[in-house]
Amino acid sequence: MGVLNEFKAFAVKGNVIDMAVGIIIGAAFGKIVTSFVGDVIMPPIGLLIGGVDFSDLAITLKAAQGDVPAVVLAYGKFIQTLIDFVIVAFAIFMGIKAINRLKREEAVAPTLPPVPTKEEELLGEIRDLLRAQNNRP
């Protein structure tokens, strides 16, 4: 029972739940970026370099023979994955940069001392009068 309770305490901690949510959102974000790169970014780039689709770039190392498939070095898919990574990394960088800017603005904002209430002002005056009376020769 001790291990089960420890696991329950571990699994319910905020950090684990936050991490799980981050992984799920990250997976969904990855799909969005993959679609953005494959469907929006890559077609114009392919058009600029002569209609080449990176995902189709490959070198056949060994041709197919009967039921044995060809051995292919698909370097175009690797280029596509690198471009996906650069875009994701840049998007994360921009997001963190914006968050850090907001944190700096919060930290820089000066906090004004609280304005004393009327009661506090009166009590301060009474204190000062009592000090003045006690300090008389």
TrEMBL record:
Pfam families assigned: MscL (PF01741)
Transmembrane regions listed in the UniProt entry: 78-96
Presence of keyword Cell inner membrane: yes
Chief site of localization: membrane
InterPro entries, per database record: Mechanosensitive_channel_CS, MS_channel, MSC/AndL, MscL_channel
Keywords: Cell inner membrane, Cell membrane, Ion channel, Ion transport, Membrane, Transmembrane, Transmembrane helix, Transport
Molecular function via GO: mechanosensitive monoatomic ion channel activity
Topology of this chain in the membrane: Multi-pass membrane protein
Subcellular location: Cell inner membrane; Cell membrane
Gene Ontology, cellular component aspect: plasma membrane
Subunit structure, as described in the record: Homopentamer.
Biological function: Channel that opens in response to stretch forces in the membrane lipid bilayer. May participate in the regulation of osmotic pressure changes within the cell.
Family: Belongs to the MscL family.
Protein name as catalogued: Large-conductance mechanosensitive channel
Classification of source organism: Bacteria, Pseudomonadati, Pseudomonadota, Gammaproteobacteria, Pseudomonadales
